[in-house]
C-alpha cells in the first residue's frame, strides 16, 4: 500500500477509533463541524485538496456515509473507498427518536458521558473493558457540544442508492450481518447491479468493527488497497 489512506471516523469518534490496527501511511480526519452533511462534504473537499492524485478513502459509520457522499459529488477525486459499518439509506425513525431522546437526557441531567447501555449496544463483547474505555475516551474528548452538533447535522440522511449507481470507482463495504444500524438490503442490491461494488460481512452484531475485529479489518484494508 504505497498511497496514503485517508480515514474518516464515525459519530463521536476520533483517531482512537483506529488505534488497535497497526496501520502505516495514513492520515486521520475529524468529522467536520458543519451544520449540514453537504457542508461537511465541502469542508472535506477543502481538506483533501492537497492530495493531487485520486485518494484512497476509508470511512466508518457516519464517516462511511460522508465518504459515499464525497464519492458521488467528486468521483474523479477517488481512487478507492472502503466503507465500514455504514448503510446507504436514511436512518430509521426509531433510531432518530432514540438519538434525540439520548441527547435530551444528557442535556437535562448535565451528563458528559454515555451510559454503559448506550455503549454496549454497539459492541458484541460487552465486557471488553479496553473497548468500553476507548469509546468513553472518544466521547469525553469530543464533548457534549460536538455530540449535539453532529447529531442534529446528520440525523436526516438521504438514501444514496440512485446516486451510487453512477459511481465507477471500486467501493467495498464491510459490515456485520446483524448490525442494527445498517440495512444490508440496498447494499446487496447495489452490489448485484454493479461490479465495482463489493460487500463482505462478518457473522456478528458488532457495529464497532475497528475495535472488535481489528485484525480482520487490517487484512481487508491491505488487500483492497
* Overall geometry: globular
Sequence of secondary-structure elements: EEHEHEHHHHEHEHH
Termini separation: 6 Å
Structural class: alpha/beta
Main sheet properties: 6 strands, parallel
Mean pLDDT: 93
Keywords:
225 residues; alpha/beta; six-stranded parallel sheet; 14% strand; globular
Description:
This protein is of the alpha/beta class. Helices cover about 45% and strands about 15% of the residues. The longest helix has 26 residues. The chain is globular. The termini are close together.
Summarize the structure.
The protein is α/β, with parallel strands linked by helices and 225 residues long.
Question: How does the SSE layout of this entry go?
Answer:
Elements (H helix, E strand, L loop, with lengths): L4 E4 L17 E3 L8 H12 L6 E6 L1 H12 L4 E7 L8 H16 L7 H5 L8 H26 L6 H4 L6 E6 L7 H10 L3 E6 L6 H4 L1 H11 L1
Parallel strand pairs: 1-2, 1-3, 3-4, 4-5, 5-6
Helix pairs in contact: 1-2, 3-5
Amino acid at each position: 500500500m504505497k498511497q496514503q489512506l485517508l480515514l474518516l471516523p464515525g459519530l463521536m469518534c476520533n483517531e482512537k477509533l483506529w488505534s488497535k490496527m497497526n496501520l502505516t501511511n495514513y492520515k486521520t480526519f475529524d468529522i467536520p463541524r458543519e451544520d449540514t452533511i453537504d457542508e461537511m462534504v465541502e469542508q472535506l473537499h477543502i481538506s483533501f485538496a492537497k492530495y493531487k492524485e485520486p485518494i484512497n478513502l476509508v470511512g466508518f459509520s457516519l464517516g462511511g456515509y460522508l465518504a459515499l457522499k464525497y464519492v458521488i459529488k467528486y468521483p474523479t477525486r477517488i481512487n478507492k473507498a472502503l466503507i465500514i459499518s455504514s448503510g446507504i439509506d436514511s436512518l430509521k425513525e426509531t433510531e432518530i427518536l432514540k438519538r434525540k431522546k439520548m441527547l435530551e437526557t444528557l442535556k437535562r441531567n448535565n451528563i458528559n458521558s454515555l451510559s454503559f447501555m448506550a455503549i454496549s449496544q454497539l459492541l458484541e463483547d460487552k465486557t471488553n473493558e479496553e473497548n468500553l474505555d476507548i469509546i468513553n475516551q472518544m466521547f469525553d474528548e469530543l464533548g457534549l457540544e460536538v455530540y449535539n452538533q453532529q447529531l442534529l447535522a446528520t440525523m436526516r440522511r438521504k438514501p444514496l442508492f440512485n446516486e451510487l449507481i453512477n459511481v465507477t470507482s471500486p467501493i467495498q463495504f464491510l459490515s456485520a450481518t446483524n448490525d442494527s444500524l445498517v440495512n444490508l438490503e440496498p447494499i446487496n442490491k447495489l452490489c448485484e447491479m454493479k461490479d465495482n461494488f463489493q460487500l463482505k460481512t462478518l457473522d456478528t452484531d458488532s457495529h464497532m468493527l475497528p475495535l472488535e475485529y481489528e485484525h480482520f479489518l487490517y487484512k481487508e484494508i491491505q488487500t483492497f488497497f
